[in-house]
Amino acid sequence: MSSKLLSKSKYLNGLQCPKLLWISFNRPDLIPQPDAVTQNRFDQGNLVGNLAKQLFPQGVDIPTDDFMENIRMTKELLKQRKPLFEAAVMVGQRYSRADILSPVNEEEWDIIEVKSSTEVKDINLHDVSFQKLCWEDSGVRIRKCFLAYINNKYIKDGDINPHELFILEDISARVEEVGNDILNRIDEMFEIVIMADCPETPIGPQCDEPYECALNGFCRANLPEHNVFTLYYGGKKACELYNLGITEIAEIPPIFQLNEKQQIQRSCIVNNNTHLDRERIQLFLGQLQYPLYFLDFETFNTVIPLFDGTHPYQNIPFQFSLHIKETPESGLRHISFLAKGKNDPRPDLLDSLSRNIGDSGSIVAYNKQFEEKVLKDLSIAFPEYADRINSMLPRFIDLLVPFRAFAYYNPSQKGSASLKKVLPAVTGMDYMGLEIGKGDDASLAYLDMTYGDLSDEECLTIREQLLAYCGLDTEGMVRIIEKLEEITNK
Ligand code: SF4
Q: 369: burial class by Cβ within 10 Å (0-12, 13-18, 19+)?
């Protein structure tokens, strides 16, 4: 097999970035292995792919392990005119595989590309246009192209019904449109691939669109600590600065237009100090009414819903941490809930939450929209709790607000107002010593512990890690407020 074989995924790499394309051919060792979150996305994609096969009960699965054997079997099976799963074709220096190839009359076939997304994206059109070109050049006549993607309105009721879970959309015309210049694009890609040196593509918007590039770490390795890409909501401005040769925030000239928060960020770096708007912080603190309930949920979501009454990608809360401070002088009480077993965790979670949150006092969350949305979804799914939940919602206070307003800003936040950056900046506490350090990892750990194949001992360890992680989120909020009170009383 030629090492210069352009597969569908490499073609998509080429559309994203010439440097990514070159490296994927010539230095694949530089591309890191997918992390656990990315791997989980792939795994969920495989589950979705398998489910889509049920749309074609007569279909034949072609094993994909042996590349050449897959191509040989495809040639054979094309003659039988049955739906084919994972059929592959090689024409010249191009190689492509179709999720589903379905016969439609005596001579033609439809391509059905299966995606876990909930809409048709431009990149899907390019993906299918590459497939179509390969099949047609090999002599297989394509009638139409479809995208089978997830219907996020689907509500599970018993066994998953693939005919309701998937939306099958005819994308033939749009595929035709994006395919207009495909041969030229492919020629250009081969010219890049055979270059002796890697092209010097600058970092830019393409690094996160349409996919977060796996080489982001590699391409940014030599950037200074306070580089322009850490500018608060820097976006296009950061790319513009970078293209002007300015990599350090401290070097941004005063005439360059920055918004108020970005100016605070630059000034804090230049002067190596913390910005404080005491009045604004005091206004925020003045809203707090004791007893204070510091609340944080952990949730998971799956493409294919697990429980009746839920839809694809619905966030299912499985854990909360609640720190309670009755009066300014009293100590701190901590209540944790972490679901056990494979059943829907929500009824037990709701029961525990409603027993432990009193009828008055502020409920403090970091980015309260998330906690509020979880509660609103729960009130719809469990209407018997609706009154209780509706009485909680107006009591929420968002600790993110003063940080998003830059009422407090420390250079170590690096342009972020997230709790993970704010907690160390304000209190010196951090997540470094914890095995689980972010929400995505917590979701995966819970799914692993609950539905995976782990020993009791491993599950116990994960439970402890989850409790420690979620507990730090709410204790962290308590300590941040204490610190803000201390700062503003000075
Ligand atoms: S990180 Fe950006 S510049 Fe580097 S290879 Fe990826 S897309 Fe290209």
A: exposed
